[in-house]
Specification:
Largest sheet: 5 strands, parallel
Number of helices: 10
Strand content: 15-25%
Helix content: 25-40%
Strand order of the largest sheet: 6-7-8-5-9
Radius of gyration: 22 Å
CATH architecture of the largest domain: 3-Layer(aba) Sandwich
CATH topology of the largest domain: Rossmann fold
């Protein structure tokens, strides 16, 4: 249904300074807009322009609302599938959006980086962040960044994870990346770990090359071992030989994830991604 023109909430959304998903309500399986904020179209994404500057128009204006909502629902649906034990909190309307909140100290940095993709900058970089092993069973903050990319700026955002629902998620990403919609596309990769495994390193380097070749900003969450000491205690008789070996293995696993990449892959990653921790320290 078409309605009279008034100020569009969506057109000013990129100016919002805080909050994960302003104007959005997540309750159980439902994701919907706060209707009172979209009086210009009642949430239809279309409105009838009867008069503009005193001149009869008789035209229809359409915004990006419907597409952005569909993209949000796709991402939230993927989140539910990938993190089922956490997504139960979505049944509480007051807690649902909090799942995607980001610490205020880095929220502005992330928001500012995302805003640059619409400025036509030739250097479009994502961020990578190195997290400790204790974050392994928690959803990444990259979910909050991806939802902001969609809702605030209208980008095509994809959240990948190696070894889990990877086939369909990667297929959708490659399809959109090659379709050339004209909208910025952003790739988010969570829980990258065990890069000492040649297969894991190969998958990451392949994705880095793919994004590099297409100038796609890449956001990565790396998971590393908490310490260089093994948590396993070898049998007493084997201590003399196995404990040093166990410690050496643990030290290797605690290396910076970038050290497991080839020099060429590291150089490509520097072109499409920055160290979020390093950026924060320079502020």
């Amino acid at each position: 249904m078409l309605h009279h023109a008034s100020t569009c909430f969506l057109s000013h959304l990129h100016e919002e300074k805080g909050g994960c998903l302003p104007g959005i309500i997540i309750e159980g399986p439902e994701l919907r807009i706060k209707q009172d904020l979209f009086s210009c179209c009642d949430g239809s994404g279309s409105r009838f322009n009867e008069v503009s500057n005193g001149v009869p128009q008789g035209s229809v204006s359409r915004c990006d609302l419907v597409r952005r909502l569909a993209s949000l629902r796709r991402l939230v649906g993927l989140f539910r599938k990938r993190w089922p034990f956490v997504s139960n909190q979505m049944n509480n309307p007051g807690k649902a959006v909090e799942l995607f909140s980001i610490n205020r100290s880095i929220e502005q940095t992330i928001q500012k980086r995302l805003s640059r993709y619409n400025e036509g900058s030739s250097s479009k970089k994502g961020f990578f962040i190195i997290e400790s092993e204790k974050e392994h069973l928690k959803p990444s903050i990259l979910w909050g960044a991806a939802l902001r990319a969609v809702w605030f700026f209208g980008y095509d955002a994809h959240v990948l994870k190696f070894g889990q629902d990877n086939s369909s998620a990667k297929t959708n990403f490659f399809k959109e990346a090659d379709s050339r919609t004209g909208r910025p596309i952003v790739c988010f990769l969570e829980k990258v770990e065990k890069l000492w495994d040649p297969g894991s390193a190969f998958d990451l380097e392949a994705l880095i090359s793919y994004c590099y070749d297409r100038c796609i900003p890449l956001w990565i969450e790396f998971i590393v071992n908490d310490s260089g000491d093994s948590s396993e205690t070898p049998p007493p008789l084997a201590n003399r030989f196995s404990k040093p070996i166990s410690r050496r293995i643990a030290n290797l696993k605690a290396k910076s994830p970038l050290e497991w990449l080839s020099k060429q892959a590291r150089l490509k990653l520097e072109t499409i991604s920055d160290d979020l921790n390093g950026t924060q320290n320079r502020r």
